[in-house]
Amino acid sequence: MATDYYAVLGVRRDAGQDEIKKAFRRLARELHPDVNPDPKTQERFKEINAAYEVLSDPAKKQVYDLGGDPLSSQGGAGAGGFGAGFGNFSDIMDAFFGQSQQRGPRSRTRRGQDAMIRLDIELDEAAFGTTKDLQVDTAVTCGTCSGEGAAPGTAAQTCDMCRGRGEVSQVTRSFLGQVMTSRPCPQCQGFGTVVPTPCPECAGDGRVRSRRTLTVKIPAGVDNGTRIQLAGEGEVGPGGGPAGDLYVEIRELPHPTFQRRGDDLHCTVTIPMTAASLGTKCPLETLDGMEEIDVRPGTQSGQSIPLHQRGVTHLRGGGRGDLIVHVEVITPNKLDAAQEDLLRQLAKLRGEERPTGHFQPGQQGLFSRLKDAFNGR
Ligand SMILES: [Zn+2]
Ligand SMILES: [Zn+2]
Predict the structure, then answer these.
(1) Domains of the chain (ranges, CATH numbers)
(2) Backbone phi, psi, residue 129, to 5°
């Protein structure tokens, strides 16, 4: 006996078929001439192929185990030769490409794409929520062919080029014997079926564009950039596939009075110096209607007046942000003679005729004003 096939594959004499197959695959990957063109390696590659051909075939294995040489007994002149009776082509392919390769025609039906539209809303709509009618332009299932893509009265037919497999194989000869390659069928683009008479409405796509009105509920608390997902309201897929989702992206329009920061609203009220000193009430159109802002006597410029729960509703969980009114005190200028006289009298009464100012490091003044604000003064 010339060759110990078990030794060639590196397996024990009592190895099972699984073990033999595994050993062969490992060696085939390692020694394949494409990977390792060295002539010695190629010799070795032929050996493992011969060994596997014998040991993987129960009949040949039995002949071999009894002391015969199944390759010489069947092949004649080419005894032990490589090309003769080379029947393990698929195993070599498996070794290289794995068995789990997905085969067969691909489906004409696919999920549709998501769509997005922008929606401009006013601040009060964002604060309290609203309902909007949107014009939506998306692909919908073709009513003429119900998404099948075939003209009424006709149907898709099995592709005669690939016989429904969706792929065509080509066999070429090489030193291995034969190499088989597969590619998507050019006649049916891999679908396995052809539509001889496409639907005139959708040209075979199974869907058409359509404009429809969609009523969307906008929850309270949405902000610039908030996206509302409407499941299944996007584009219908090809071949009547399920629709993607529709996203409505919120864009909040600027408000003439309020600036939004998070769920709080901010605005500035300017009042004359006299009003800041004597106190006043300023009417303000809030999101909840007219309210009187109470400017207490002695209010300083930069102080802020919070109106609790007058901001935007929190998107998650109840409650609302605040409305914060910042006070800016206007110093009177362009005084006429009478006004100037009055102010000088006031300064005299208050002992403020020659104030030298009160200097502090940094921005103490601002901090003390904030402190005043917290202390309610
Ligand atoms: Zn159609
Ligand atoms: Zn085909």
Answers:
(1) 5-97 (1.10.287.110), 115-156+195-252 (2.60.260.20), 259-349 (2.60.260.20)
(2) 85, 160
